[in-house]
Amino acid sequence: MFNGKKVVVVMPAYNAAVTLERTYNEVMSQGCVDLVIVVDDASKDNTLELAEKLPNTLAHRHEVNKGYGGNQKTCYRLALENGADVVVMVHPDYQYTPLLIPAMATMIANGLYPCVLGSRVLGGKARKQGMPWWRYVANRFLTLYANIMTGAKLSEYHTGYRAFSRELLEALPLERNSDDFVFDNQMLMQILWKGYTIAEVSCPTKYFTDASSINFIRSCKYGLGCMAAATRFFLARRGLLKPGPFTDQA
Prior knowledge:
The chain is of the alpha/beta class. It has a single domain (7-246), classed as Spore Coat Polysaccharide Biosynthesis Protein SpsA, Chain A (Alpha-Beta Complex), CATH 3.90.550.10. It is 40% helix and 14% strand. It contains 8 helices and 7 strands, in the order βαβαβαβαβαβααβα. The protein has a 7-stranded mixed β-sheet, sandwiched between helices. The protein is globular and about 50 Å long. The N and C termini lie far apart (38 Å).
């Protein structure tokens, strides 16, 4: 706990058996995590069986693959149902270091920010740490586009390392978002639409064989989805489109 707030780490997992335990051990070594929730998205390996053996862990399985966004929806629902005050999403593929959990969680628990992102770009070493050049260029372009459309000044919109307050998660209409990878971006658009401040911390990352990634075609689909979300945000702010997915209204 931090400041009397229950800290829950959620892990959206798919075929994560190779790296799950290593990620879990580093998460729990931080000494502030009360519960880990692993949601297995119909993996083809033994991710669920491994998760069920981990202490202080709630393991849940989707019988049918619901996608990365659909997995996160379940993660956040279960976290809130289990009394989380601070929710930190950590990918179980060990790409993002769990060592930042205390810093991110305390920023939420102390009421400084409702959302904290672990940015791979903020420290200026994304390429040196192995981010492929084409992914880096796409990241920079999509981030610039989103900042222009929203008026925000984030260094990155595409990190999968995120922390949220309970109050923020309860305020977001997450079910209106996609079940695919663009969920991440749509969620940030909802946060900005509602006027919340998003903080960032510099996050070193690892790129290796067992780290999850999406192929080029799905990356293109994701990029177009991000641009569509940012464009809708821009037009809705000017009254040219209904806010729709950013609110609870139809």
